[in-house]
Structure formats: structure tokens, C-alpha cells
Design a protein that fits this description.
The chain is an alpha/beta fold. It contains 17 helices and 13 strands. The two termini are 27 Å apart.
Length: 490
């Protein structure tokens, strides 16, 4: 039996939902697989709703509301159109075919118009086939790695002496390593309080030294960087077994960081770009990591191999249970010191806590007083090509600033240096996807502009709104196109 596409339709209460109701009364031809969600206004449809629908199994998402100029809430539909235009670009970057997301307008009496839109979308989705997001986006990659390690066992009582601390570096730039040294005088105080049992960037401890420790022999393990290689996943599991407390340290371990933007490309493309394409690379046999490579000649020859690139970038929490998170790219000295004091104290925070203020960066922004009560933009500006007012709110100047959707902790940070916030400290507690929230908020400021122009105005929405959080976002990882048998592409 042919697959019947599953469409989730968010319908405005006053117009599109009334049109759908009328279509039912008139017995118009409508697919039985259509799932309608009644909302008071399309302006209430957050990008996160659309993304979650895809994650829950929708093959397509339709957003339908009042015609422009007829919104019961003045301009809610225009703001929805602005968000939809930018979201559509982000979905395209993630490999979601444009036919899978549609916005349309239908008045309360336009039952046939709405039914026609649904039939047309259904036909397009039938031709595409099922999205099967979870499999095509390799959602199970982290679960498979997590299950590969042994189940945690009860730990023996802690050994006496100074707390034993480990620092480890996965896929990242090394800025988090410097963040520890940036403690200044506090760094010397830290070394007096703890015994460092692993810190590859600064000490000569080997893997064998860590393996020789009893399970639970490390009190605190600070792991920075995303998990991009099988070796990094293996180290994460080892440190989870040896450490009583594991801390995701920095934006890459927390949300995937800039490394997570690699999920916009297939692993094969990343390897080719690094090992084959650059003109400065001499690789005549074109071997790639993951297989044996013969190095040297004669008696000095040896067979070597490099770690295997995982199908996608994973956060630390995708691979092992994480007890605490210290956010930031890198974490600021104040946040690092406060986290150390809390974790080494007698009353540590509740497990699962993000150890930074749960307050929007905007609340402590030095430009806060210059932000208008209502911002409405008709064009975007780029920092590199614009004269920026040093005192006026970045958003009011048409510059993308992630401050409204980002937690505090970086100060003094980018904003104090005259740069808009880029979101490295991640979302506040209770926000599932900070990038989707910021896209929603920022695009809503563009409600009076042409949606098509808005979509082009943000050429890289994934890299703009999910710069540090793409690996942890509701936005899909790069979806592999289906092959001729319906299987994910190689």
C-alpha cells in the first residue's frame, strides 16, 4: 500500500480553521492523514512547533491563516510569514525539501482554496516519499554510542585526600583550556585545592594512568569539545566510568558549538575537504581516516590509522550522562570560578544544573536603556558594512543579536566590546531550542517586509541562529537524501 503523507496543519482559528470546518461540511476531498492543530493566530506558530512536528513524524507541515491585512490581531500573520520565510531557508540548509513546509492564506469562506492547497501539498509529498526524519538524520547515532559502554555500577566510598580533577579536550578550538588558565590568581588557588590527574594540554598523564584509576577515582572531570570522532566517544565513556561527576565544559560539549555546523555536510564531504581538496595537501593515494595507512619505508615502515569520523557531531550528553554544564565559548573566568567553588564545596548544586545565571543577556546589557518599546525593521544590516551606533540597541539598528535568547555569564563579553551577541552561552532553562526561539523573535521584528525578501536577507540562518547549538537543535541534522530503494544515501 502506498504511503499516505502525514501533514500537520497549524490553522488560524478565525480563518483557515473555519475554512477547514466548512470543507468538512461540504464534503470536499481532503486527505484523511491531515492532522489539524487549531491556533488563535498563525503569529502564535513558533518555529519550534514546526521543527517538533517533523521530529514527531510529519512528512510535511502547513501553516495557514488570514489573508494579509485581515488578521484579527493586526499583523500576526505578517510576522508569521517573516518567521516562515527565514525558517524555510534554514530547513533547506538542513536538507529538508522545500515542498515539505508551506505557508498559505485562506479566508473563512474559502474552503475550496484550503482543500486545494492540502491536495496539492499531499501530491508533492507523495512524490517525495516519507521524510522518515529520525533515520535519515541519523538520530540514533548517539544512542548507539551510549549503549556501547558498560552500565554504571555503584561506586566505592571516595578515597581521602584532595579532590582529584581531570580536564579533557575533544573536538574544539582549545579556548576552554585557556579559560582555566584565565582564572589568574584563582588558577594557583585551584592547584592548591585539587590534585590534577589528567590534563593532556598541560601534563604528561597517559591513558594508561586513567585506566589504572579505580572507577570513581576521579572526583570531577571537565570535558570540553564536541564528540566528532570514535576516539573522543571512547574517552568520554572512560571518563564517565572513572569520574564521580562529569561536567560538560563550554559550548561545544554543551551544544556542539561551531563544530556542530559540520552536521550541515555529510562526513564524506568533510573528509574530502580536509584530506583531498586543498591545494596544499599532498595525498596522491587519497587515503582517509578510518582505514589502515602504510607510513614510512623499509624497516621503519608501520601501519597506522586515524580515528573514525562519526556520522554526525554529538554533544557530550548524547554519548554519556552529564551531571553539570558550564556554558560559553569559552566560559568566562567568573563563571568558571563560581562553578569550581560550587562543585568543590560542601553543598553542590542540583544535578543537571547549568552553572551560569538563568537570566537573559539583555537584562544586563549596557545598551538596554536604548531599546525602543516596539522595534519594527524593514531591512537588515551587516556589521562589516555598516556604521554602528556605539550606544543604541543592536536589534534596533537591524543587526542580528542573540541577547534576548541567550543566558548571561560572558560579561564582559562581545556586547561590551561592541559586537552583537552570538549566543554561545546557550538558551535559558526551559527553552528547548535557543536558535529557534531567536529566529522567531528576530524575524517577528520584520513583519512589515516582503517574506520573499526576508528569506534572502538572512543568507545563512542555520549559521546565524544556531551557530553554537546546531548539533543540539530541533533543526534537523543534515538529512540524507533517500536513495532509489528508499534507503538513506551513503
Amino acid at each position: 500500500m502506498a504511503h499516505e503523507p502525514r501533514i500537520v496543519a497549524f490553522l488560524c482559528n478565525w480563518c483557515a480553521y473555519a475554512a477547514a470546518d466548512r470543507a468538512g461540511q461540504q464534503r470536499l476531498d481532503m486527505p484523511q492523514s491531515l492532522l489539524t492543530v487549531r491556533v488563535m493566530c498563525t503569529g502564535r506558530v513558533e518555529p519550534g512547533f514546526v521543527l517538533q512536528a517533523f521530529r514527531e513524524g510529519a512528512d510535511g507541515v502547513l501553516v495557514a491563516g488570514c489573508h494579509p491585512g485581515e488578521c484579527h490581531y493586526l499583523d500576526g500573520n505578517l510576522r508569521a510569514a517573516a518567521r516562515g520565510a527565514v525558517l524555510a531557508r534554514a530547513l533547506e540548509q538542513a536538507g529538508i525539501e522545500p515542498e515539505r513546509f508551506r505557508m498559505t492564506w485562506a479566508g473563512a469562506t474559502e474552503a475550496e482554496r484550503l482543500a486545494g492547497e492540502v491536495r496539492e501539498m499531499t501530491a508533492a509529498l507523495r512524490a517525495l516519499g516519507p521524510l522518515d526524519y529520525a533515520r535519515r538524520a541519523l538520530d540514533g547515532a548517539g544512542a548507539a554510542l551510549a549503549e556501547a559502554g558498560p552500565a554504571p555500577s555503584a561506586l566505592p566510598p571516595r578515597a581521602p585526600g584532595k579532590p582529584r580533577v581531570a580536564f579533557y579536550w575533544n573536538a574544539s578550538c582549545g579556548g576552554c583550556e585557556e579559560a582555566v588558565v584565565d582564572l589568574g590568581d584563582g588558577f594557583a588557588g585551584l592547584l592548591e585545592r585539587v590534585e590534577v590527574v589528567l590534563w593532556p594540554v598541560a601534563t604528561d598523564h597517559k591513558r594508561a594512568d586513567v585506566e589504572a584509576l579505580p572507577d570513581g577515582g576521579i572526583d570531577l572531570a571537565f570535558v570540553n569539545g564536541a564528540v566528532r570522532l570514535d576516539e573522543q566517544a571512547d574517552w568520554a565513556r572512560l571518563l564517565r566510568r572513572k569520574a564521580r561527576t562529569v561536567v560538560a565544559f563550554g559550548a561545544c560539549a554543551h551544544l556542539g558549538g561551531v563544530v556542530g555546523l559540520g552536521n550541515l555536510s555529510e562526513p564524506e564531504a568533510l573528509l574530502a575537504a580536509a584530506y583531498r581538496a586543498p591545494p596544499s595537501v599532498s595525498n596522491p593515494d587519497a587515503p582517509l581516516p578510518g582505514g589502515p595507512v602504510r607510513a614510512g619505508a623499509g624497516a621503519d615502515a608501520a601501519t597506522l590509522s586515524l580515528p573514525v569520523l562519526l556520522p554526525r557531531t554529538l554533544t557530550l550528553a548524547d554519548v554519556v550522562p552529564v551531571d553539570y554544564t558550564v556554558p560559553g565559548c569559552p566560559p568566562s573566568p567568573a563563571v568558571v570560578q563560581a562553578a569550581l567553588d560550587a562543585l568543590l564545596g560542601d553543598a553542590p548544586p542540583p544535578r543537571g544544573a547549568v552553572l551560569a545565571p538563568d537570566v537573559s543577556l539583555c537584562e544586563d546589557c549596557p545598551r538596554k536603556g536604548s531599546r525602543p518599546e516596539r522595534i519594527e525593521l524593514h531591512a537588515l544590516r551587516r556589521l562589516a558594512t555598516s556604521a554602528v551606533d556605539p550606544d543604541l540597541c543592536f536589534l534596533a539598528q537591524g543587526l542580528v543579536c542573540m541577547g534576548p535568547a541567550t543566558r548571561q555569564g560572558c560579561q564582559p563579553g562581545c556586547v561590551e566590546a561592541g559586537m552583537p551577541c552570538r549566543g554561545c552561552f546557550g538558551p535559558l532553562d526551559g527553552v528547548r531550542d535557543g536558535g529557534a526561539a531567536m529566529l522567531s523573535g528576530f524575524a517577528s521584528l520584520l513583519g512589515g517586509a516582503d517574506p520573499a525578501a526576508l528569506g534572502a536577507a538572512v543568507p545563512d540562518p542555520a549559521g546565524t541562529f544556531w551557530r553554537y547549538s546546531y548539533a543540539a537543535a530541533l533543526l534537523p541534522r543534515r538529512v540524507r537524501p533517500a536513495g532509489p530503494e528508499g534507503e538513506a544515501g551513503p
